[in-house]
Write a structure and sequence with these properties.
Elements lengths: L1 E5 L3 E3 L3 H9 L13 E6 L3 E6 L4 E10 L3 E6 L7 E11 L2 E11 L2 H25 L2
Antiparallel strand pairs: 1-8, 2-8, 3-4, 4-5, 5-6, 6-7, 7-8
């Protein structure tokens, strides 16, 4: 069953180039995650994985990029279900950038009930952390 989640859109006090450069290095993703809820962090510039508290390991792999505007991410081998995650970056002018996450996953009905709320909270948290990072 296709499940789509879109995070809150945030305005970031930085250029789209700076935001893109930061997010394009997956070593930086750790700074956007709730540190008290993740463990087993591993990363390179193009992929990362982490375990969410009392849940599965989430492997993220960079699939493709559109310079300064979009980073396409796909689930890695050990993901509990296949998904894509689009990191959207939009230049607003005056050194401001809009950012948000678009998630699309194939999640069965049983799992869906358990993961939609935590994933929505996670993506909103990540968007807020990105906004704080450049405040």
């Amino acid at each position: 069953m296709a499940t789509q989640i879109t995070s809150n859109k945030v305005v970031i006090s930085a250029s789209d180039e700076d935001v893109f450069a930061y997010l394009n290095d997956f070593n930086n993703i750790k700074d956007l995650l709730p540190q008290d809820k993740i463990s087993d962090w591993k990363a390179t510039k193009d992929d990362c994985s982490f375990k969410i508290q009392n849940a599965a390991v989430i492997p993220l792999v960079k699939d493709s990029v559109t310079e300064h505007s979009l980073i396409n991410v796909v689930s890695g081998d050990k993901a509990p279900f296949p998904f894509t995650l689009k990191i959207n970056i939009k230049d607003l002018g005056d050194g401001k950038t809009e950012g948000y996450l678009d998630f699309n996953g194939e999640i069965n009905a049983f799992l869906r009930m358990m993961v939609v709320s935590p994933l929505t909270n996670l993506f909103n948290y990540m968007a807020e952390k990105l906004q704080e990072k450049f405040a």
